Amino acid sequence: MVKILIKIHPKGVVSLCDENLIGKTFETKTEKLEVNERFFKGEARSGDFIVEILKDTGNATIVGKNSVDFAVRHGFIDKNCVKKIGKAPVACIFAV
Q1: Full-prediction pTM beyond 0.70?
Q2: Which residue, 5, 18, 28, 54, is the most exposed by fewest CB within 10 angstroms?
Q3: C-alpha–C-alpha distance, residues 96 and 93, integer Å
């Protein structure tokens, strides 16, 4: 199983990413996603910890099948809001 990494940035922005995607780039004709270490390389944490952080965040970027599936399964995003850039599923949570 691929580990899910979580990184909490200043001002409460969160990145959630499948560990095996760090350092990779995904593209379509009009979009490019760089899964760079600076933004996405966080710590592998328990599912309970990730749920508690996502409950309190207003802004998150979620990349990778395992990470996106986790967020959908726990009700943080709707599966219809998931987009693909290249082969990478991507979703965002924005505060309103």
Answers
A1: yes
A2: 28
A3: 10
